[in-house]
Structures are given as C-alpha cells and as structure tokens.
Amino acid sequence: MRHAMLGLSLALALGALALGAPAIAQGQQSTIAASLADPSRPPADRARDASRKPGALLAFAGVRRGMWVLELDPGRGYFTRALSLAVGPPGLVLAYVPEESVSAPYKPLDAITAVAAEPGRGNVRVMHDPLLAPAWPDLAGNIDLVWTSQNYHDFHNIAGFDGAAFNARMFALLKPGGVYLVTDHAALPGAGVEVTHTLHRIDKALVIAEVEAAGFVLDGESAALANPADPHTQPVFDPAIRGATDQFVLRFRKPRREHHG
C-alpha cells in the first residue's frame, strides 16, 4: 500500500471528523459556483464546463465544505480541482490512480501529482494502489463521497475485476448515508460487457446491478449529461461523437442502517 503521504495529518483528521458529515449548508450552491469561478482553475478546465456540467454534478452529489471525497481514477484532474475548491481546507480529496492505469500514455499518476502540487491544493492527496487491493483500513467508514466520472467502464478492462467485490470495498469506505456518484458513457441497453473495451461505454443497468449488489441503494439519477441524439454505437473517441456522448449520472447511497434478515 502506497499512500503513506496521508501520514499523521490523516490520523488527526480522522479523529476530528469521526462524528459524521455535517448537514448541507444553505449556501451550498453559492459555494459550488464560487469554487468553479475560482481563478486557480486553468482556462482549459473552464472551457470544458459547458459540456461536463460540473456545477450540476457537484450539487447533485451534495458536495459541501469539509467533505472527504475519494475520487476514483481522476484523469488529468478536471474534477479534482473543482472538488478541492468546493470542499475547502476543512475537507480532503483523495485522488486515487489505480496502479493498473499508471502506464497510460498521458501518465495519469504524474498528471494528478502535478495537480496536487498546485498552489491551494493542500487538501489533495494522491494514492495509487492496485485496483484490486484490499480496502484501506484507516479510511473505512470515514469517506463522505466516492466519485467516479467517465471511467467505471475502464475498471472492467482490468484483468480479474469483480464489480460486486470492488463496490463492496467502496461501501466499507463510506460513512453511513454516504454517496457514491457514478457517471459514464452510456451503451445500448443490454449491451454486453465487451463494449467497455471496444466502445468505452457501459450499460447503465450493469452498473446499477453491480453497485446495488454491494448494498448500495440507487438514490437518484440526473439527466445533466444526457444526449438522446447519441446513437450509442460509436466509440467515445470517434470525432463524430467525442465530447457529446450520452452519459448517465447515478447517485447511490449507503443506507444509514444496515438491515439483517
């Protein structure tokens, strides 16, 4: 396990936040808007806001000051910056790059490490264990939000991936009542798992089945990234559809009380 950089500060913060997440503040929308308007966000990020709808997604996920967020496979850090600004210095963004992804051409570990080193990103920590490694015991029950954007399908392309087992680990990491947000490129209903590799899409029903099997409850769905004009048959990198795919946005919640039959 290679996230020793959390160190003593993580242990101290665990104690301070162990009582659970605070209620959503009345100024949540204003905080999100101010975060997205922050001048520390580079122009390249701002240019993508119209298509990626960060304000709508952060609000739908209930992002607020002081939250602990686990961001799965953060890419080049587009949402990492937005989340960092929205949760503020009281919060924490754990940017997790699966070890299986570090050899990607754009060097994701280097990219997100550079984001964490930017001025004002002191609440971002980088982690890069293998995707199928055991859950991190020092984080169990302390995460407010697990966030994954446009990459759940990629997990299926990692040898040995077990969706139910992986999501069970996310379940263990979240606080009772915590949220698991999954957005991805939609495949045709009933599409086989092979499209995760050929089209870089995934059937929404497959995601729901895998996540619910871990104990989560589907708590809501947003149409913020929907595009009914997408034929769902082209690879997401096809210039004809790139940046305009139909995407689902699913909000799952860990029940506050577990029921035993």
State the helical fraction: 25-40%
Quaternary state of the chains: single chain
Strand content: 15-25%
Mean pLDDT: 89
Structural class: alpha/beta
Taking the alpha carbons of the first and last residues, their distance comes to 35 Å
Work out the helix count.
10
Give the CATH topology: Rossmann fold
SSE order in H/E notation? Answer: HHHHEHEHEEHHEHHEE
* C-alpha-based Rg, rounded: 17 Å
Give a count of the beta strands, DSSP E runs of length 2 or more: 7
Poorly predicted runs are 1-24
Shape: globular
How many domains make up the coordinates?
A: 1
- CATH superfamily membership, which one? Vaccinia Virus protein VP39
Task: Please state how the strands of the largest beta sheet are arranged side by side.
Answer: 3-2-1-4-5-7-6
Give a nutshell description of this structure.
With 261 residues, this protein is α/β, with parallel strands linked by helices. It contains 10 helices and 7 strands.
Question: What can you tell me about this protein's structure?
Answer:
- This protein has about 260 residues and is α/β, with parallel strands linked by helices.
- The protein has one domain: Rossmann fold.
- It has helices spanning about 5-15, 30-35, 45-50, 55-60, 80-85, 110-115, 150-155, 165-175, 195-200, 205-215, and strands at about 70, 90-95, 125, 145-150, 175-185, 215-220, 245-255.
- The chain has a seven-stranded mixed beta sheet with strand order 3-2-1-4-5-7-6.
- Strand 2, helix 6 (about 110-115) and strand 3 (about 125) form a beta-alpha-beta unit.
- It is globular.
- It starts with 6 loop residues before the first helix and ends in an 8-residue tail after the last strand.
